[in-house]
Amino acid sequence: MVWEAVEGAQKALELIMSGDPMVIEITLRSVYVSGLATLLASSWSLPLGAAIALKNFRGKRPVKGLFNTLLGMPTVALGLLLYLALSRSGPLGFLQLLYTPMAIALGQAILVTPIIVSFTVSAIESVDPEIRDLARTLGASELQAGLAVLGEAAGGVVLAVTASFNRAIAELGVALMVGGNIRGATRVLTTTIALETTRGEIVLGIALTIILLLVVFSLSLAVNLAGRRTTWRF
Amino acid sequence: MEVLMELKDIVKTYGRITALDHVSLKVRRGETLALLGSNGAGKTTMLKIMGGILKQDSGNIYYGREKIDDRNLKLLRRNSTMVFQKTVLFNSDVYGNVAYGLELRRIPEADLEHRVREALSQVGLEGYEKRPVKTLSGGEQQRVSLARALALKPELLLLDEPTANLDPENAAAVEKIIKEFKGATTVILATHNLFQAKRLSDRIAYMARGVLVEEGSPEEIFQRPRDERTARFVRGFAF
User: Fold this and answer.
1) Is residue B106 part of a domain?
2) B208 lies in a domain?
């Protein structure tokens, strides 16, 4: 097993250095699909998270609890639900999205929505409540005061978005069930790893896993380094 | 003396707790007025309402001749600023903190930079512009808060126990800065410290349990208090 891991690492290096077209295509598709999913999810989850954190409303606690609970949503369960919804006879069948990269992106966006919402709420709520009053007393409107709070929470919000991308690119259930792992169309890193491993191509599976880990760790490292040098002010 | 702000019959409650109970007060332009009282007297609530960051349940506020409501709340927020008891700073450098209010007012960059440096100089923090606020001591952080307020050149400066969390040396430094601005701007200082009120203010309004008990010159409050509650408070601390 150790030998296979070493071989896998060697193979990964070879695949990266040689610029293997299949590996490049699959890696780029994974980054594209999960990047799109993160963008989509951010577009609705960030405002939603900010609204939940900044507004006081009846039922706030159950709403937060719901999103926290959904953090543990099994990807296969979500994949199955989406499959049923997107299949030809399903309620969203007319969109003809099943077995397309967009279907994977949509599924992953839904999957990571609770991550962005919950982490955003938590980041904003951890900001000193007096920051809002401070902004107001310095002449800020309500909107500007809200943005000042968001600025203070930006580190946590960026972490939420990064974690979401990592979760999306590393998940298998949704990509497999609504993507179908079609070569040249919907094959992404995780589905290829699963396929190659079941076919006995352990070394290739390990090589692709190393590439996947490199993508995830590189992004996290880059965001971490950028975060140290950045002061967020909206 | 011209009245800068007038509060008429202000009531503010938090659930069952009445923080301000029909409080009326006139603030004169250019004076330093101390809101004196124990913890829970309603001083912070009063300052927040005066600064337009908290809304009263009932009663009226007049700024100059303008009655303040939701439509012209900005008038209050743009002409006054508050320094909080607990130092509250944005997570950035000193410059970013002091510049924030000026940026909101769209002050041109060159003027903005000048005003930030001037304010930092006034509080003895020249050269601190690029220092992250987290690396400063408590006293320095409170001075950044003061600089941030002073940079705005507010008509009305609201100070909420500005030395409560400071050691005697830093407290003295902050008091010195406040003294330098006496007369130049209208200052309302919330404090539970009798001696500080005496040292810094032209007039004192004594508050207890959300009620404005009485107001007068430091001499009147300390030597000839009209109300028994004021007398007890003054005696309790003085002897």
Assistant:
1) no
2) yes
Task: State the average pLDDT over residues A44-69.
Answer: 95
pLDDT band at residue B239, thresholds of 50, 70 and 90?
Answer: very low
Q: Does B100 touch chain A (CB under 8 A)?
A: yes
* Separation between Cα atoms, residue B147 and residue B134, nearest integer Å: 16
Question: How many Cβ pairs within 8 Å bridge chains A and B?
Answer: 58
Q: Which residue has the tokens 């589905």?
A: A191
A16: pLDDT strictly greater than 90? no
- What is the extent of the structural domain holding B58? 3-89+155-238
Look at residue B59 and tell me if it is in a domain.
yes
* A131/B93 CB distance under 8 A: no
pLDDT reported for residue A230: 60
Residues of B in contact with A128 (CB under 8 A): 88
ipTM of the complex: 0.83
A135 contact B CB<8A = yes
Q: Does B148 touch chain A (CB under 8 A)?
A: yes
What does the pLDDT look like over A182-224, one tens digit per residue?
999 999 999 999 999 999 888 888 889 999 999 999 999 998 8
Which CATH number covers residue B182? 3.40.50.300
Question: Chain A, 162-221: which have a CB under 8 Å from a chain B CB?
Answer: none
CB–CB of A173/A186 below 8 Å? no
For the record, the structure tokens of A164 come out as 């979401």
Cα dihedral: A67, A69, A74, A79 (round 10): -30
Instruction: Tell whether B153 lies on the interface with A, counting CB pairs under 8 A.
Output: no
Strands B211-216 and B80-83, bridge-based pairing: unpaired
Domains located in chain A, CATH noted: 2-229 (1.10.3720.10)
Within a domain: residue B210? yes
pLDDT of A92: 94
- Give the pLDDT of residue B202: 95
Number of domains in chain B: 1
What pLDDT was estimated at residue B238? Answer: 43
Inter-chain CB proximity B90 and A139 less than 8 Å? no
Q: Which band of pLDDT confidence, cut at 50, 70 and 90, is reported for residue A233?
A: low
Interacting residues of A42 by C-beta distance below 8 A, sequence separation 6+ = A116, A161, A164
Mutate to test the interface with A, among B88, B148, B161 (most CBs of A within 10 A): B88
Q: Tell if the CB–CB gap between B92 and A148 is shorter than 8 Å.
A: no
Q: Please report, for residues A113, A168, B55, B155, B234, the alpha-carbon distance to residue A71 in angstroms, rounded to integers and kept in the order given.
A: 9, 13, 38, 50, 58
